[in-house]
Amino acid sequence: MQPSSGSVSTLSLQETGSSESADSLSTGTVNTFDGLGSLTGKAILSFGKLTLRGVEQLIISRRLTTIATNFPHHNTDNILGLHSMYADLLELSRIHIYPKSTRIRALQILMRQIACRSTTQLVKALSTAPMVEVKLLLSEILSWFDPIRLVKHRLR
To answer: Residue ranges of region Disordered (predicted)?
Structure first.
């Protein structure tokens, strides 16, 4: 989760007490101690973050599975929630935001739809996306057809 805009400091505990010179530059002195309680707290925090990431990935995976049951479809099909499915696919295909496996699954669903040549709903969804995101998506899709990429992929 992102820190709230009303948070007091964005520095980690390690950064706030890491050096005496940093403390002398600040208006107040902040001391942190590495003891049993702080180490336990750090372990619990790390475990919590890991758990949240796992739950988030599970939710995303289930959403992609649900979306995949409706793809590919025809332009004339009337599917409830199709616009939000496209919005989710475009979101999940964003570079450097989601894990590579998630991005690839979302892109594969979009590519299957494009291969069917029924892209009216995709074009509608792309028309509401920021132009930068559309350019990044198109660049990613076009890179799939790059023969050099295919050779590199086979060598791995």
So the answer is: 1-25
